Amino acid sequence: MSVEPVRTVSAAELAVLLGAAPTGGQPLYRGLADALREKVADGSMAVGVRLPAERALAEELRLSRVTVSAAYRELREAGWASARHGSGTFVAMPSGPPAWGSMVGAPVDGVVDLVNAAPAAAPELREAYLDAVDELPHFMPQHGYHPGGLATLRAAIAGHYTSRGRPTTGDQILVTGGAGDATEVVFEALVEAGDRVLVEHPTYPGAVESVQAAGGRPVPVPIDATDPDAFVAEADRAARQSAPTVAYLMPDFSNPSGARATPDGRRRLAATLARHGMVTVVDEVAAELVLDGSDDLEPFGVPVPESATVAIGSLSKTVWGGIRVGWVRAEAARTAQMAKIMARRQLSVSVLDQLAAVRLFAWHDRLVAQRRGDLLVQRDALAAAVDEQLPGWDYVLPAGGLSLWCTLPGGTSSTELGAAARSRGLLLAPGPRFGTGHLFDDHQRLPFTRPVSELTAAVNILATLVVSGDASMSATPTLVV
Predict the structure, then answer these.
(1) pLDDT at 436 exceeding the cut of 90
(2) Residues 6+ apart with CB under 8 A from 450
(3) How far apart are CA 91 and CA 104, in angstroms?
(4) Which residue of 159, 445, 461, 478 is surrounded by the most CB atoms within 10 Å?
(5) Rounded CA gap, 167 and 169, in Å?
(6) Taking the domains of the chain in order of start, what are their residue ranges?
(7) Average pLDDT of the residues in 338-365
(8) Average pLDDT, the chain
(9) Whole-Å CA distances, 360 to 364, 368, 374, 401
């Protein structure tokens, strides 16, 4: 039985990472603990890495050993570190807030819901279901279970990948009950207890929860929409430091940052992750929502072996979240393995939904063009309203996707903002939900998936709250559920 080598950050390396020793009004040990916590939260130090001995770090930082010892103790008590008798202190991650799904509620009249980046249904949906009902009698004499998905739907999805430059056959497709279902099946197949999984930071909270449910440990790697290709070097560093076995990425319009890798960057990233032996899970739910008129890019992972990537997609963003049809695209042997896992969860996705999806794929180009047009109008209207009414809110206008990722002016808390907005009829997902710990409380995701009238109303509410001071930082973070 092989023993996994322990990864250690030396005192000298950690001193360089931290920069100058903490100063200011708070106790030195607390400043050091905060600095260490920040480096874990932003992905600079991976979970499981052993911290240097207290004496060595104290000497390197020119602090007393008592100060370092107190800082380590504070980290352990808050869940950011763990001690192993005789082995040292190791980076950990505290338990998170309630599940992302707990924030999803039924629509309420008069309430603007910007928790979910989910657009209204495409008008063609009704016609697709009427056609599906007409086809249903052909299937009714059968038992109704189609593990893996209807052959016609798998062929339609495979044909779509082939048309995008990724030759695919039906046996490489697994039909699931939406992208979330696909994500859980994929991580259950790829992740074993204790495995590290590289994730973008910030990222979609539901994916992190799926990693943790499978027993994995997320390794956050910072991503920046102003320089998305810098993620390649960051991912390489994280891979060398923490040896993840799986990566989860949204290379096209990452949620929430909106970052999109360039053609060169995505090829270098795919090669880097494959070189480190990782299987990359590529979330493509927003990949086709291009809003700047640029060409669609080839699917992520084309230059690397089939075994190096697994793609996830769904109809939730192009058509509607209420049609629970998603899929996994992988090499055939891996898809067969995942089909067995899915069979333990549910015998089959609804036949009626799948028949409707077949028809929707036949109208794919028209549906995508229509969704792009709607989102472009809504994005521009939201950006204009933010520019006019929320000075100091900074963002990179995304070339596609579903939301703005705004950096808030100093002293503004998205957690406090969300709590105050709720009482005004506006629902928001606080920034920390997209990160680890309390990082990103100075950020706010604003989806542009709702009608312009609702987006304008939302910005009006936010402007009122900012002027009134109801979004100011408080001493204790407020939990928004």
Answers:
(1) no
(2) 112, 113, 114, 119, 378, 458
(3) 32
(4) 445
(5) 7
(6) 11-91, 100-122+366-468, 139-362
(7) 93
(8) 89
(9) 6, 10, 18, 20
Cis peptide, bond prior to residue 52, ω within 30 of zero? no
pLDDT at residue 471, as a whole number: 58
Number of neighbouring beta carbons within 10 Å of residue 293: 8
Name the nearest CA neighbour of 330 among 175, 202, 223: 175
- State in words which class domain 139-362 has: alpha beta
Residues 156 and 361: beta-carbon distance below 8 Å: yes
Residue type, 354: Q
Terminal alpha carbon distance of the chain: 44
More confidently predicted of 106 and 414: 414
Q: How far apart are CA 47 and CA 396, in angstroms?
A: 30
Lowest mean pLDDT across 200-204, 338-342, 468-472: 468-472
* Tally of helices (H runs) and strands (E runs) in the chain: 15, 13
Is 50 exceeded by the pLDDT of residue 2? no
For 159-194, the pLDDT digits (tens) are 999 999 999 999 999 999 999 999 999 999 999 999
Torsion angle of C-alpha atoms 20, 24, 28, 30, degrees rounded to 10: -100
> Residue 294 has what pLDDT?
86
CATH of domain 100-122+366-468: 3.90.1150.10
34: buried, middle or exposed (CB in 10 Å: 19+, 13-18, 0-12)? middle
Percent of the chain as helix, strand, coil, to the nearest 5: 45, 15, 40
Q: Is-contact 232 280, C-beta < 8 A?
A: no
Rounded alpha-carbon distances, angstroms, from residue 302 to 197, 233, 334, 395: 21, 20, 17, 31
How confident is residue 18, by pLDDT bands cut at 50, 70 and 90?
Answer: confident
State both tokens at 465: 């709250």
Helix (H, G, I), strand (E, B) or coil at 262: coil
Residue 229's nearest CA partner among 262, 274, 198, 254 is: 262
Tell me the two tokens of residue 401.
């996707």
Structure tokens at 428: 């928001």
For the segment(s) 11-91, the CATH number from 3.30.1330.10, 1.20.120.1460, 1.10.10.10, 1.20.120.1730 is 1.10.10.10
pLDDT band at 336 (very low <50, low <70, confident <90, very high): very high
Q: What is the pLDDT of residue 43?
A: 66
Task: State pTM to two decimals.
Answer: 0.78
Residue 333 confidence (pLDDT) above 70: yes
